Amino acid sequence: MRWGVEDVTVLFGERTALAGVDLAITPGTVTAVVGGDGAGKSTLLRVCSGALRPTQGTVRLPPSERIGAMAEIPGVYRDLTVGEHLRFVADAYGLSAATVQSRSRELLGRAGLADTADRLAGHLSGGMRQKLAVVLALLHRPDLLVLDELTTGVDPVSRAELWRLIGHAASGGAGVLVATTYLDEAERASEVLVLHAGRPLLHGAPDELIADATGLEDVVIARQLGTPQETVA
Amino acid sequence: MSAIVADGVTRRFGPVTAVDDVSLEVRAGEVIGLIGANGAGKTTLIRMLLGLLEPHAGRVLLAGLPPSRRTRRRVGYVPQGLGLWPDLTVAEHLGLAAAAYGTWARSPDDEEVDRAADRLVAHLPLGLRRRVAFELALAHRPDVLVLDEPTSGVDALARARLWEVIGRTARDGAGVLVSTHHLDEASRCDRIALLADGRLIAGGSTDELTDGRTAVRVVTPRWQAAWTRLEKAGLPVLPAGRALRIPGADPGQVAELVADDAAEVVTVPATLEEVFLTEVAA
């Protein structure tokens, strides 16, 4: 395993947020974590971005400056412009002005955000803000990219742009981990982990998991119906 | 009878035409999916259909009548933000809705919602909050049901259950309009309307919309190299599990580009999402 977690458990007081989760993140691939509200996705992604130390288990990550992360609620400031965001993140990572300029132009172009450098983030649509957050996570060419709720509330065109952005990062050798509630979207990843109530429900390559079913959704529903439903407090 | 009729509906905000000459019909017993890019005009259109916003041109009929407080009684609506009060209980919500619609409060159809009757909405998980919002929208047996992104954030099983409710409501005779960002959900609708830049760009059933449309699927052990070549050629390549897919591409051109990557290149039927992306790009 290059990066990832082994047998990770996270307790918040009495509550078990994650129990016995294994996940390998391979450089040059996209891995998706799927589950509904309260499944443990965000907790796992916080562990995988180094933001949360698990109660138990092994975590292997690159050094923190080689990780690019986007939290469940993207850290975009409404009263900064797109350009100010890029300069702020570039300064935090100590990137040179020339690198930042060419890299920003390339990423904004790919994200469909060219010509937005002077716009306030607060005036962008939800989809555009989400794309900006991913651009910021990618700016320093991280080896590991960890993106929570990649496309929640994002329209289909922006969603395709986001998948092209992360596909491009993976094609350049980055390991990419995304969380989503949507199984059709998870089928784009080369490896999928489905979580339910903090435990792994299914894990594998989408086409192997789907086998004879019509889609990943049917497989997950069948498995979920066979699992006792835990009441969420 | 038609649940909703929109005829040449237009709405401008200053210099921006948010909805431009849109005509749409939702018949009784039918589920129509409304799909659009952000800023496509979906929410503006829904607000006009509900009578919350006046069109600048064209007209709207709800259950055969122009939108008014009277027609509002025939409409059930679940807004994107659900429209619930965190510090009221589920039972208080049901009582409030019954009073507003002038109907009798009755126990909910959904057993889990019923069991949560005395709990504050703020204390319910998101999936259950959505079911409460559905219950409120359906409690007065509307002829028209309008749902704005009804399943965002819920897991597969909860989503399947919400779609069961949508299907049952239509079978009971209501006309249902569902807006969604997710094209796999749209494919559960009887017909789909695709909206871009305020205009209706395509409409029909999933089969009609995807008929004859193709994508090119590329499987290769050297996917990173293949991705780079396809992307450099300006093709709209997307990851698809351990393969790559390019909607609407020419298989000959793709095969030539990835000739050095030991790739298997096949033409496959396009998904609804791929058709949408190709239509919007055009």
What portion of residues of chain B belong to β-strands?
Answer: 25-35%
Helix content bin of chain B: 25-40%
Shape of chain B: globular
Spatial gap, N to C terminus of chain B: 35 Å
Compressed to H and E, one letter per element, the order of chain B equals EEEHEHEHHHEHEHEEHEHEEHEH
What distinguishing features does this structure have?
heterodimer, A: 233 residues, 6-stranded mixed β-sheet, 3-stranded antiparallel β-sheet, 24% strand, globular, B: 13 strands, 29% strand
Explained architecture:
The complex is a heterodimer of chains A (233) and B (282). Chain A is an alpha/beta fold. Chain A is 35% helix and 24% strand. Chain A has eight helices and nine strands. Chain A has helices at 41-48, 82-93, 97-110, 126-138, 156-171, 183-186, 206-210, 216-225, and strands at 3-12, 15-25, 30-34, 56-60, 67-70, 144-147, 175-180, 191-196, 199-204. In chain A, the strands form two sheets. Chain A has a six-stranded mixed beta sheet, sandwiched between helices. A three-stranded antiparallel beta sheet of chain A has the order 2-1-4, covered by helices on one side. In chain A, strand 1 (3-12) and strand 2 (15-25) form a beta hairpin. In chain A, helix 4 (126-138) packs parallel to helix 5. In chain B, helix 3 (90-101) runs parallel beside helix 5 and helix 5 packs parallel to helix 6 (156-171). Chain B has helices spanning 42-49, 69-72, 90-101, 111-115, 126-138, 156-171, 183-186, 206-210, 223-232, 251-257, 272-281, and strands at 2-13, 16-27, 31-36, 57-62, 75-78, 144-148, 175-180, 191-196, 199-204, 214-219, 238-240, 243-247, 264-269. Chain B has eleven helices and 13 strands. Chain B starts with a strand and ends with a helix. In chain B, the strands form three sheets. Chain B has a six-stranded mixed beta sheet, with helices on both faces. In chain B, strands 11-12-10-13 form a four-stranded antiparallel beta sheet. A three-stranded antiparallel beta sheet of chain B has the order 2-1-4, with helices on one face. By secondary structure, chain B is an alpha/beta fold. The relative contact order of chain B is 0.14. The A-B interface holds A 28, 30, 35-39, 125-128, 152-160, 163-164, 166-168, 170-173, 181-184, 187-190, 196, 205-207, 215, 217, 220-221, 224-225, 232 and B 35-40, 125-127, 149, 152-158, 160, 181-184, 223-224, 227-228, 231, 236-242, 273, 276-277, 280.
